[in-house]
Amino acid sequence: MARPARAPLTERALVFVAVVVVAWPMTAAVASAAPCPPDARRGVPVRVPRGPGDLAMLPEACGANEVTFFARGSLALDLDDFYGAIDGAVGVRGRVALSRRVWISFGLPALEARFAANATVEAASFDLGAGTLAAHMALDVGARLRVAPYFRLLVPTETTFTTGTRMGYEVGAAAAGRVARRLEIVGGALAASSFVVLDDRQRSVVSLAVVADVVWHTARWLTLVLGAAVRAVPADAEPLEAVEPRAEARLHLGRWAITLGGEVPLAGRDRTDARIVASVGRAL
Amino acid sequence: MGDAPSVRRALVVSLVVLASASSLVGCRARTGCMGGDDGRCVPASPCAPLEATCTDPSLDVRRVRGPQDRAPGLDAVAATGDIVLENALVSVVIDDVGTPHQLAPTGGNVTDMVPRDGVTEDGMNGMQQIVGILPEDTVAYRTLEVIDRRPELVAVVARGTLDGRPETSVVTRYELRPCERGLRLRTELHHAGRDPYAYFLANGFWWGGREVTPFVPLRGQGFHHPDFDLLELGTTFRTFPFLAASTHGAAPVAYALVACDPPSLDGFQSAAVSAAGLPRAIVQPGDSLELESFLAVARGPGLGGVVAAAAEARTQLFDERWVRVRGRVTTRDGAPLGGDERLGSLLIYEPARGADPDDVDLRTPIAEVVPDAAGLWSTRVRADRRYHVERHAFGRATGERVALDVGREDASAPDLVVARGAGLVSATVRERGRGTFAELVLTPAGATRREDVYGTVHGFFDDEEHCAPYLGPPHAGSPACNRVLTDGAGRATFAVPLGEYWVYATRGPFATIARELVNVTDAGRVEVVLAIEPIAGLVPEGALSADFHVHGGASFDSDLPELDRARTFVAQGLDVIAATDHEVVSNYADAVAALGIGNRVRVLAGMETTGQIPFLRPPGSDFPRVIGHFNFWPLRFDATRPRNGGPDDERVEPGELFDRMEALYDGHGVAQLNHPYADIDFGRDQGYLTALDLDPRDPIPLDEAHTPAGQLRRRPGGTFGHANIEHDVQEVMNGKETIQFLRYRAGWFSFLDQGILRAGTANSDSHTLAVQVLGNPRNLVLGGHHLAAFDVERFDEDVRRGRMIGTNGPVLVAEVRDRQGVVRGPSIEPFVPADDALLAIEVRAAPWIPVSEIRIVVNGEVVWVIDAELAHPTDPFGSEGLVRWRGTVPVHRLLEGTSGDAWIVVEAGYPLWPAADVDDDGRVETTDNDGDGVIDERDQEGLDEEDWYQEPPVPHDESDPRFHLDVCVPGAWPTAFTNPFVLDRDGDGWRGPRELR
């Protein structure tokens, strides 16, 4: 297998500087901002990873200390094109609160399995996925609204590429607004850039997404989430990637949370029929 | 307390820095097009460790200027504008991007490749880069760039994308260096799409099905490969160090593909196609693939030379140890034995472990060689191993073998002494006392059993069950299968396996046959003389015998030399031939001139269009189709142009194809719909009506509609606006199979009944001596034609008008007469029959061709059967008893029970083979397999779908009237038909009985 090539020096340097510049202030406490409620269940949108890693998956709007083990899968069938693809992964993600308003989130490189069929040419692979590392800061806007800008970095640990290396980063903001005692709106917007570096060239894809989920804490032990996301790749010939309704059910058992969720891309270029995820998390 | 935030800050920064730093990890930069094709990148020179030296380090790269640049052999198709790469040893042609061949959507692929000895014939139908099996998975090249760095190297860089996935770039470098016996290849693919794909980047070889036998040095394989099925491809993939393949014609060639990077190849093999390249892999968007290989070529016969070249390459690339081995084959008397693969080839293999070292499923073949005329052979094998050398002769393993232990130095094998050799037969065929072109057919007799003398080419081409005795590769030159062609003096001398045989001589269905019994031993030559005579009075005066569907070695699925094919024209008693090779215009001008038979046969240059790239989506179709095959003649032959002047026939519907042909005809031209309901082969429809899934019972609308039948009226667009149904003639009989006749007949009757008047033809579709005997069936074209004053335009006009009879033996003379003396023969031209009109029928046949039934068909229904009063000759080898029935039937009696206009067809021969349309799609597919007299679903139980229809059994007893016919024309079921009599009963213009109004 060919070893990964080197990214252009200028781009790498810019990324490095930007990360440090953005990350440094986040490490300082802001004593005057209103705190996030100390509740890992709050401000959490539907979390269905699309890959690579957690890139382009809207993160939580609140910090917490938790670790989650997840298993995800997706299916794409395009019979007209004699195409099919199934992939799945198991991995671990988590959040570490550095202060009451600042936290980092991480996604360890997942174990990934893939199957693809191009008519009767089939292939399967087992790989290590990409890791992610993000820094978040919550800003309270009034008593009911929290906005949490973030920066996420894709750690290039993937083994699925034969000759290239995929890297990426993402900027966005998650927000959570309490509508009623048990009802909140969680959403946000993000811009994610992933690029594969090979030779002296790189090919980047910038995708945008806007997300809105209605989170209903029906009981202390049960949370239901229903929402939608719109994704686009502006530079593509078919810019609309997908409009996807999504849903999630969470069972809370003390510090444990068992979650089952999914999303179904409709419209747009995305050929994926459905993505599902199941996870078991624990607040620390 | 105050330290905690600092610790967290430090932790965050550390993690962030660590994550960022990981992006700095990288290795050496690459060159080439791995990151995508920017129009300027050039793939690196492949297979770097290879080196070669020789006395003549010359190199050349140039554009093809004309036919003089074409390699020897009928498969060589280089045309003006293609690029030639040559060194002192090898010549390679890359076709120009605008001149695609075979399965490639564009040029930019290897199309010809030969060693530069001036003799060895090209056997490369085409090699192209692929990533899968769909049309979108082949590469469409857009530009070719020549790199001329002589004296170091010459190269061609082909740039393009996947056809149908233009976001995925592919750049291929073809490089030739001095003194190397092959071509270096490097392909770089960059996937800039959005979805992960399962790709198999490989070199794809289109062998065609009857020319080449691929070989891989794997345990249990060699020439034996997993059954190839496009729908279950995964089970056929194997990993191997190299692939070798050879042709089996008169000047055979061999190729080998060796992996450079990676060190092994993944792929699959079959007689039709081989693919060898990278393992199947999921390719992510943004990722790239690279494949390097070395394509070697050597003179045949056998693989010895090309395996040696592959061994030399692997020694340099991977430091493998290969050594040269030599040996000799002799008779018991010490005389050398060799020079022809028929007489013997040697399979060299590592024996299996266990009880049977020669177990075919467990041994590991490494090479195959053919000893030369001095009995000597040599090749290369891996060092430090034990081998067995096994002799094959006449298509079978003989059981003779020697053992060979090889160390690290070159070695010699013990002499292989042949205990029982072959015999020689010298035959002379005379007609009216003079030697004549003829075909000889041998069949086992006495104690010689078919299964003891049946042969194949190392297991290939085993579907020709009549190749017993096996005299030679069935799809190459004479002697082939169990057939031999004589020269113009009627002579042929050929080797035969020991045994007892009948030797038949035949000159087609309008001459007698003769046979003699021979006992072939290795004690000497057997002489046999056979006398046959043309049978006067069989063929109507002024009728010419014509076959409008004939293939030879220029087709991708035939290795029959041009001279041999031309000999069969006269040997089978044909007057007119339409030369219709796949995808190339042929005219046999050189062969006809060389044989001096220009006054005995007229060859009309033509072509069979053979769509290979699925694109058509008829209503209701789940997958893309092609439009099937069509024949066109006469065409202008131009060897300077691609396909010798034939059209680009890919991705066009029939109507547009007809438009394109208008500019290529030499005269008015004839367009023939071939085998309309033929099965799918290699995922490609061979029949247009099969592609549409047309039920012949469905009404055909008057205008285009979104139905299978409605597509026939579609005018796809073009200069002349032809509709898809505007062919001139269509095949009603093609070859020997009764299932095809029943289906094509049903389709033709449907057209006639609906007012679509097309003349029906009967053609052999002969590809080789073994596949469909030339002229069986054939057409008798009426209209006062004579070879001495042959008028091709008038002849073709009679063909288009249906003034023809189709037959594989019986001669059916039918005409409508009235008391005023008006006589009408068959034709698609309507006429008004007189009230007293009589249908006059006379059926004649050579004594060895049985006839037991005459059928009169009115509007598609059999209304009259004559079977009781037929005459049956007693001596099949005589010339008496030609007329089997003669009589008249009043036309008005035939039309009883019908109203309106009508049409009549007369058929003769044997009864229609019983079959039924159990699945109710309008086409028969099942015979009475359980013998209960009823054809239903029970006849399909326990059988694969391909076995639901059983053709008539081979007659094994001479008392069967079909016995001698089946020897001379295997599988023939006597059948003849007239073109229709089209009756405009009320004189107001003819309308088909089921024609929509």
How would you summarize the topology of this molecule?
The complex is a heterodimer of chains A (284) and B (997).
Chain A: H1 9-26, E1 66-78, E2 83-97, E3 102-107, E4 111-118, E5 121-128, E6 131-137, E7 139-141, E8 145-155, E9 165-178, E10 183-198, E11 201-219, E12 222-232, E13 240-253, E14 256-263, E15 272-283
Antiparallel strand pairs in A: 1-2, 1-15, 2-3, 2-4, 3-6, 4-5, 6-8, 7-8, 8-9, 9-10, 10-11, 11-12, 12-13, 13-14, 14-15
Chain B: H1 3-22, E1 59-63, E2 83-87, E3 90-94, E4 110-115, E5 127-130, E6 139-149, E7 153-162, E8 165-176, E9 182-191, E10 197-199, E11 202-206, E12 213-215, E13 238-240, E14 242-246, E15 253-261, E16 265-268, E17 273-277, E18 281-283, E19 288-299, H2 304-318, E20 322-331, E21 345-350, E22 364-369, E23 376-382, E24 385-393, E25 396-406, E26 411-412, E27 416-418, E28 423-431, E29 434-435, E30 439-444, H3 450-453, E31 483-485, E32 491-496, E33 499-506, E34 514-520, E35 525-532, E36 544-550, H4 562-571, E37 576-579, H5 589-595, E38 602-605, E39 607-610, E40 629-635, H6 654-662, E41 665-673, E42 680-681, E43 684-685, H7 688-692, H8 708-711, E44 729-734, H9 738-753, E45 759-763, E46 778-781, H10 792-800, E47 804-807, E48 811-817, E49 823-824, E50 827-831, E51 838-844, E52 853-858, E53 861-866, E54 883-890, H11 891-894, E55 902-909, H12 963-968, E56 975-978, E57 981-983
Parallel strand pairs in B: 20-26, 20-27, 28-35, 36-37, 37-38, 41-44, 44-45, 50-57
Antiparallel strand pairs in B: 1-2, 2-3, 3-4, 5-11, 6-7, 7-8, 8-9, 9-19, 10-18, 11-17, 12-14, 13-16, 14-15, 15-19, 16-17, 20-23, 21-22, 21-24, 24-25, 28-29, 28-32, 30-31, 30-33, 33-34, 36-46, 39-40, 40-41, 42-43, 46-47, 47-56, 48-49, 48-51, 51-54, 52-53, 52-55, 55-56, 55-57
